[in-house]
Design brief:
Blueprint lengths: L1 H31 L9 H32 L3 H15 L2 H12 L4 H6 L7 H29 L1 H7 L4 H29 L3 H6 L7 H10 L4 H27 L16 H29 L4 H8 L12 H26 L6 H4 L8 H15 L7 H23 L3 H9 L4 H12 L1 H16 L3 H6 L7 H9 L4 H28 L6
Helix pairs in contact: 1-11, 1-16, 2-6, 2-8, 2-12, 3-6, 3-12, 3-23, 4-12, 4-22, 4-23, 6-8, 7-8, 8-11, 10-11, 10-16, 12-23, 14-17, 14-20, 14-22, 17-20, 18-19, 20-23, 22-23
Length: 515
């Protein structure tokens, strides 16, 4: 028990040092200069943020629903591949997603030459990119619930002679609505906090809370406006999260009696067509990226360019070393955050609520607080500072994921182990960890993906000799010239390969044993 108490005290101390105190520094600076001009245009900024977030969410939902339906109609090995490719965009950094979509439908691309489709930087491009990399989140939330409903209630209704339209209107839609709303609100929350896509593809014309916080901090030094906008974003995020929790409580979790058989006839062929189109849409950008990166270039010269720092970029680290640093940071963040998440989800502790606090805070605001707080301590050169802010950002979602699994564990397992004389450590290692294998894998993959794809925190805290791959890619995109774009495309392609390998390993580790 003493070890558990010490671990909880360490977590509380970490929350105070790496989250509460940095925000207090910003609040103290902002209150000193607070005036009416600090809140004058907040309504217009909030309206612009909600506009791009709502349109992006609607586009993602409209595409995700047919994909989730097709995956429930034709279950099997093909389903795993479609889930893999629709999930990869969610874990890649926003600069990589920007490069991918620009390679397909941006100006002077083959899509424009063949079909006349060229999307210039601006509102439409921002909505397109944000919808594209958030579709996988909705599909992963909706598909399991839809498959379970079809495997239980749908089978019973079909046995009783209910027609297809009656099954959908009376069973599927009412039971699926909480899951769909849950995924939709999560996507809305991510779009509200979007930063990299708007900065890189907005063309300087898109306004959002996150971008305006960065602009007021870095360009105008208006800490008072930064504080007001951060509070507005926090309040908005809290409202969305409460709605997510409410729908999560009413979300049905039926266990399927058996694996629902695949449909036959035209329904099956329609589902197969949807899956084929999905694979084309989600795999095509990577092929276009490979063409833009390597066709017409010398592979040897490209490899040498990736191994040396980029001239005139202000960075003293090579693109390949930045990728290695991103993978190392994500690995450290995943290990630390999973340990803390396990401590925080232990029954009988208030850490559950404490670690959820950073979820509604702007990453840019948190990075600014780190500059003010740790700058006074002389710790800005510490290599662990970026890992610390990533842990703060990752912990709320990883903890929520793990909390659901631990709360569902039957109490008789722990009681039986205690009766047989098992120590707490042995009970955790031999009972809880095997039973929570899928949940732990999902939480760890989420933590790894969020850390690997972070751009905002790395943008604020990275130094020239310690930049991560998303920062290097964004720096290359902002530099003119075909060579710089080719390097950004090549680094993005290597990054995508790493993300695909991570997703494959996660799916294999969390797959059912009877697959």
């Amino acid at each position: 028990m003493r070890g558990v108490t010490v671990a909880r005290l360490l977590v509380w101390s970490g929350i105070a040092v790496f989250f509460i105190i940095p925000l207090l520094f910003i609040a103290s600076r902002g209150l000193q200069a607070l005036a009416w001009t600090s809140v004058a245009d907040v309504p217009s900024i909030l309206a612009a943020t909600l506009s791009q977030a709502v349109w992006s969410t609607v586009a993602a939902v409209c595409v995700a629903i047919p994909i989730a339906w097709a995956l429930t109609v034709v279950p099997g090995r093909a389903t795993h591949w479609v889930l893999l490719w629709v999930s990869v965009p969610f874990i890649i950094p926003t600069p990589v997603a920007a490069v991918l979509l620009q390679s397909v439908c941006g100006p002077q691309t083959w899509c424009g030459a063949l079909f006349g489709i060229e999307v210039a930087q601006g509102f439409v491009f921002v909505v397109l990119v944000q919808a594209w990399y958030n579709i996988g989140l909705i599909v992963r939330v909706v598909t399991p619930a839809w498959a379970a409903i079809r495997g239980t209630y749908g089978a019973v209704a079909a046995t009783l002679g209910a027609p297809i339209w009656r099954q959908h209107t009376s069973i599927t839609i009412p039971l699926l609505t909480p899951s769909l709303l849950n995924g939709t609100l999560l996507v809305l929350l991510y779009c509200i906090g979007s930063f990299g896509v708007i900065v890189l593809l907005g063309g300087g014309r898109i306004v959002s809370l996150e971008v305006e916080i960065w602009r007021q901090t870095s360009q105008y030094l208006r800490i008072d406006r930064t504080m007001v906008l951060a509070l507005v974003q926090l309040a908005l995020s809290v409202v969305v999260l409460r709605a997510v929790d409410g729908f999560g409580l009413h979300q049905p979790r039926p266990a399927p009696m058996y694996r629902s058989p695949a449909r036959t006839g035209w329904v099956r062929w329609l589902a197969i067509g949807v899956m084929c189109v999905t694979l084309v849409v989600f795999v095509l950008p990577y092929g276009a990226l490979a063409v833009r990166a390597f066709v017409g270039t010398d592979p040897g010269a490209a490899l040498r360019a990736m191994q040396s720092p980029i001239r005139g970029s202000g960075m003293s680290i090579s693109p390949l070393m930045s990728l290695v640093r991103s993978l190392w940071v994500a690995t450290c963040v995943t290990g630390i955050s999973m340990v803390i998440a396990w401590i925080a989800t232990t029954p009988g502790t208030r850490l559950r609520s404490a670690v959820a606090l950073p979820l509604g805070v702007s990453t840019i605001t948190l990075g600014l607080g780190y500059l003010l707080w740790f700058g006074t301590l002389g710790w800005l050169t510490s290599p662990w500072l970026l890992i610390a802010v990533h842990c703060v950002v990752v912990l709320p979602l990883a903890t929520r994921q793990l909390l659901v699994g631990r709360d569902r564990l039957p109490e008789q397992y722990a009681a039986a182990a205690q009766t047989l004389g098992a120590t707490p450590l042995r009970r955790i290692w031999q009972i809880e960890v095997p039973l929570l294998r899928r949940t732990l894998g999902a939480a760890a993959s989420l933590a790894y993906a969020l850390s690997l794809g972070d751009y905002a925190a790395a943008f604020v805290l990275s130094r020239p000799d310690s930049a991560t791959a998303p920062v290097i890619i964004a720096r290359l995109l902002n530099r003119p010239g075909a060579t710089n774009y080719a390097q950004a495309a090549a680094l993005s392609l290597v990054f995508v390969v790493c993300c695909v390998l991570v997703m494959v390993m996660v799916q294999r580790a969390t797959a059912d044993r009877d697959d």
